[in-house]
Amino acid sequence: MNDLSPLVQEARADFEQATAPADLENAKARYLGKTGRITEQLKALGALSPDDKKARGALINAAKQQIEAALNARRDALADAELQTQLKSEALDVTLPGRKRGAGGGLHPISRARERIEAIFGSMGFDVADGPEIETDWYSFTALNNPENHPARSMQDTFYVDIKDAHGAYLNLRPHTSPMQVRYAQAHARRYAGQATMPDIRVIVPGRTYRVDSDATHSPMFHQVEGLWIGENVSFKDLKVMYLEFIQAFFETTELKLRFRPSYFPFTEPSAEIDIMFERGPLEGRWLEVSGSGQVHPNVVRNMGLDPERYVGFAFGSGIDRLAMLRYGISDLRAFFEGDLRFLAQFN
Asked: Do 196 and 286 lie in a common domain?
């Protein structure tokens, strides 16, 4: 019978010459495929006698096993070579210095400004209140003397939620924190209902607010602090003294001036913008608007559950972001919300 050793040697040589898995599979087909040389040997067994078929079949199977062993060995060699190439390309230089862990997180500059504002007003006897950011139309507008279809509503153009309140009006993302002034005053009035006297209402409401506006000095989401002081003997003089004390404490300087500039807000009458001017520093000599303010309108006092003939007071609203920009010398509001750690790390 023919010796199959040359065939096995030839297959081993072909497998060794294969430098890629695809080349190896092509070589395999030449020997072990449907039309391969081992398969041809097996087909030829049909023409042999039973004894010769048995002996020849044993030789063919032995040759097939040797070829398969050579094939698997070459497969392993190619896989190992590919792994080594990958390891070299992804190798780490362990002699390089490691990355240092950061010093840790810290408060966002807006949070720092908010905490500072709360501490200053707290020292002056003001409570700090918080409330829902998704509000009803009544608290956001109507209760603040801003009825439906009033043109002043465009001043607080906000976003709406596809849910209606009990009166059929869509809920909104509050355009200011003033709704909480009404809620707080209502709760205060209920608490002291029936008593001869009622302590003054003094509260600030810091928080997120929303309006359809976006540029270097405006954001669709921004932070605002509103204040309310209502009592039987509260005047504009109290507002001026209080706000001047606050602004000097916030900026840690007495070298600034404050002025009231007539304005219009539906929820106050009379109304005024509050401007400040630094007497030193990079903003020296420039009047800068920092707040809106005014005597609370009688209709708003009435909606708070109080008698406007007896109780009077003032309200003001300041942008926390605006105050933080002035305090830290930031010219673009958007830097606060972009999440750039290089910018934020300066404040920690």
From this structure: yes
* Interatomic CA distance for residues 288 and 22, integer angstroms: 74
- Residues 14 and 65 sit within 8 Å (Cβ to Cβ): no
Instruction: State phi, psi for 81 to the nearest 5 degrees.
Output: -65, -40
Question: Scanning the structure block, which residue is given the tokens 């023409």?
Answer: 47
Residues 67 and 212 both lie in one domain: no
Average of per-residue pLDDT values in the chain? 89
Tally of structural domains, the chain: 2
**163 sits in which H/E element:** strand 160-164
Q: Are 178 and 144 in contact (CB under 8 A)?
A: yes
Which residue range forms the structural domain that includes residue 49?
A: 5-89
What average pLDDT does range 135-144 have in this prediction?
Answer: 93
Same domain, 38 and 75: yes
Q: What is the pLDDT of residue 38?
A: 83
Which regions of 165-240 does DSSP assign to beta strands (E)?
A: 170-173, 201-210, 221-231
Residue 268, beta-bridge partner list:
265, 296
Query: What is the crossing angle of helices 109-123 and 320-328, to 10°?
Result: 110
pTM score over 0.70? no
Tell me which of 83 and 117 has the higher pLDDT: 117
How many H helices and E strands in the chain? 11, 10
Q: Beta partners for 289?
A: 275
